[in-house]
Amino acid sequence: MAELHKDYIYNLMVKGEREDGRAFDQCREITIETNVINKAEGSARVKIGETHLVVGVKIQPGTPFPDTPDQGVIITNLELIPLASPVFEAGPPREDAIELARVVDRGIRESGAVDLSKLCITEGEKVWMVFIDVHVLDDGGNIMDAASLGATAALLTSKLPAKRYDLGEDSPVPIRDIPVAVTAVEVGGTIMLDPSLNEESIAGTKLTVTSNQNGDISAMQKSGTHPLTSEQINYIVDIAIEKAKELREKFLVI
Amino acid sequence: MNKPENLIENGIRLDGRKPDELRPIKIEVGVLNRADGSCYFEFGGNKVIAAVYGPREVHPRHMQKSTSAVVRYRYNMASFSVEERKRPGPDRRSIEISKVSREALEPVIFQEYFPRSAIDIFVEVLQADAGTRTAGINAASIALADAGIPMKSLVSSCAVGKINDTLVLDLNKDEDNYGQADMPVAITKDGNITLLQMDGHLSRDEFREALEMALKGCEAIYEMQKAALMEKYPAQLEGDVIE
Q1: Would the pLDDT of B232 be above 60?
Q2: Which residue from B98, B107, B196 is facing A233, i.e. has the nearest CB?
Q3: Number of helices (H) and strands (E), helices first, in chain B?
Q4: CA gap A249, A190 in Å, rounded
Q5: CB distance B204–A216 less than 8 Å?
Q6: What's the rounded mean pLDDT across residues A190-209?
Q7: Closest CA relative to residue B141, chosen from B159, B129, B118, B123
Q8: Angle at A188 (CA atoms; ends A231, B148), nearest 5 degrees
Q9: A37, A231, B216, B242: most buried by Cβ count inside 10 Å?
Q10: Which of B188, B197, B202 sits opposite A216 (nearest CB)?
Q11: 3-state class (DSSP) for residue B224
Q12: CA-based nearest distance B115→chain A, Å
């Protein structure tokens, strides 16, 4: 982005404004559409402002990990494919894609969103493996929140395809909690929620807070080189939990 | 070890520590000959070694920045550092740890002093016992100072976690495996937070308390880092010490 444009956003911020007219603690418009891919066991298309992605959940039987023989497996993958932005390149996922996938995964895993013990078919031999794949189609900033919303929304609509594998009747994925990630950036000392692409590119630091249904924190990740003070972090945690509650009530009802 | 019934009883943890007590720390500065700076750091059962090379030429050339140095950080676990042999080479976990660790140190390095050059930090985990990334950051921060890289501050790091609904400082392996939350934090000397990750389950109030605890732990580690450097470089300290 041009230096001039950076100055423009920075100067707006000093006046208490954002490029797209939002308040600092306001998200862009969000739309979530579920069951968009028939072949997937669950799917969701999420748009946050100009960011656009599709999450597909594929579920199949597999062998459990030796240390958790009675639990299902969740694997989250996210790729920043060159279709989505001129700055993304083909090839194996690099650190930013890996970080995004791992933070989405942590939110789902640590909140206990999916009851893994109910994904066990035969202990030590066969369990359901849940693959969550995030396909970013258009990078308009804040892929993290879109990916997390999409993953949760897709899981909520997912079915265990038992019939296909002669394992009885299909049933919904056992859901226990609804984690929602909310990301804020710090730009010159100001905290802004749901950063746009331009805001993200001038931000010193991002902080993602994933919170669960009763308002507790399940995962957090600071990303970026600029330090934060405890006050800033506590402030972000507070607004992220509030915002997550709003989003959950609006979009993600079990 | 199977899941113990209680990880903490009457305010004493299984390894005998109080909730706000760090594991024993041992620091050796300048342990490698070829590296420009190095540090061996023992943190309870963790044994890590950090080396710093640079500022030096950037390879591949296209990575160089015309106005500042690039900082690169490679966190690597030895295959024998854990119970079950780890397949050598980078995996998704170590790539993420390398990224956040680099970002924890970058803000204190005067990168603009060295345009078109690289500062390479290599951290090898020889023995792992929960908290390897914090041990790595502590070691790397000392190794950077040992290499004479101009820095605004040292970076100190430790984790806070939750076991049996009690917040505790600096989790060991069993507490990490069977505990309810883990939150690594790194700070500069003036208390700015440069690393923050969390997984598990913490309420808003618990988080606040945990952050306070982590800051105190980091401050204690800072004093030890400073003492280790002062012991290594007594001659340089005869003049005025810049705080």
Answers
A1: yes
A2: B196
A3: 4, 11
A4: 28
A5: yes
A6: 95
A7: B123
A8: 90
A9: A37
A10: B202
A11: helix
A12: 18
Q: Is A38 on the interface with B (CB under 8 A)?
A: no
For chain B, what's the residue count?
243
| pTM (2 d.p.) | 0.92
Q: Which of A110, A223, A228 sits opposite B201 (nearest CB)?
A: A110
Mean pLDDT value across residues A152-178: 95
- Name the DSSP class of A228: B
Which tens digits make up the pLDDT trace of A92-120?
999 999 999 999 999 999 999 999 999 99
Average of pLDDT values for B15-39? 96
Measure in Å the smallest separation between the Cα of A167 and chain B Cα atoms. 32
Q: Which range of residues forms the domain containing residue B191?
A: 18-237
> Could B201 and A230 be called an inter-chain contact, meaning their C-beta atoms sit closer than 8 Å?
no
Domain membership of residue B187 (yes or no) is yes
CATH for B202: 3.30.230.70
CA distance A14 to A127: 54
Residue B4 forms part of a structural domain = no
B111 within some domain: yes
Cα(A211)–Cα(A152) distance, integer angstroms: 12
Per CB-CB distance under 8 Å, the chain A contacts of B103 are 222-225
B183 within some domain: yes
Q: Do A98 and B96 touch (CB under 8 A)?
A: yes
Q: Could you tell me which chain B residue has the CA closest to the CA of A78?
A: B92
Which tokens is A233 given? 């972090």
Count structural domains, chain B: 1
How close does chain B come to A182, measured CA to CA in Å? 14
Residue-wise over B204-237: b if at least 16 C-beta within 10 A, else e?
eebbbebbebbbebbebbbebbbebbeebeeeee
Q: Which residues in chain B have their CB less than 8 angstroms from residue A223's CB?
A: 99-100, 103
Sequence-ordered strand ranges (E) for B164-228: 166-169, 181-188, 193-202
